[in-house]
Design goal:
single chain, alpha+beta
Amino acid sequence: MVGKKMKAAISLAAVMMIAGTVSVYASTPSNAHKELYNGVSATLIKAADKKPATIQDQINQLYVGLKPGQVIAYYVADQKFNPLNQIYFAGKGYVLKDYNEYMAKAKKMNAPLFTKPKDLPKGYKFKTGVLYLKNPDESSELYKKLDQELKAQAAQGNKSLYTKSLEVGEASSAVLMYVKDKVEVSVVSTFVMKSQPTNGTPVPDSNPNKITETIEIGGIECVYTTELKGKDHLDWTDTDNQVRYSIWAEGVKSDVVNFAKSMLKNEFISKTKRAAIWQPFLNYGAR
């Protein structure tokens, strides 16, 4: 049960911006490692048949060859490309157009939960469900083992990229997409990630292309962000269960707010009931 302590959330990671597409769903890269991902989308569209010649080409090819549910841990033994000397992950989740199949897979993967609204804004129907794979946490034994193993291989080899496939059975984020005519609304839930320590004094976020306002819905503070160059979104966090919610759409603020009102009208499902009661959006997806 969620109390008044639920606070406004910052917008989701940039990967959630592509929640409206179904071409590929990869795990979220580190912000400090963005240079590794430049040009990935273009490469996915026209994957090269020839052998990759650069580190960037090899990383892009990792994504091309991924199958749904597959994750690859990789290490770049190059200080320019990997100044933090860390391992990273490339993963492709599940895109499911059948609602019942999506629900079964989401429950099996312990995906973050939605609430079960009584109503949806008029005219909307289920389109697609997406499940993002959960990468090993940096504090986990698996992460430490992979880190040690890949770096040991790099120390003895002469390549730039070292990889290892691993099985992932849990989801870090879930998306339900609904459509009405040409309008699409994506409802996203994701487990809150542990914040990493920062060096120095954080710089306040300032973006002239964003306009934010606080909206109280059912006693919960939410943040509505108008993106002048992108999709608008409404965000809030369930601090009891450490789940962040976002609703993304373009130019339909009233519908987005109505989605949130419907979700927040009832109490959130308690953590102890998750395994037995996993019915986000109830039966609306089957319509």
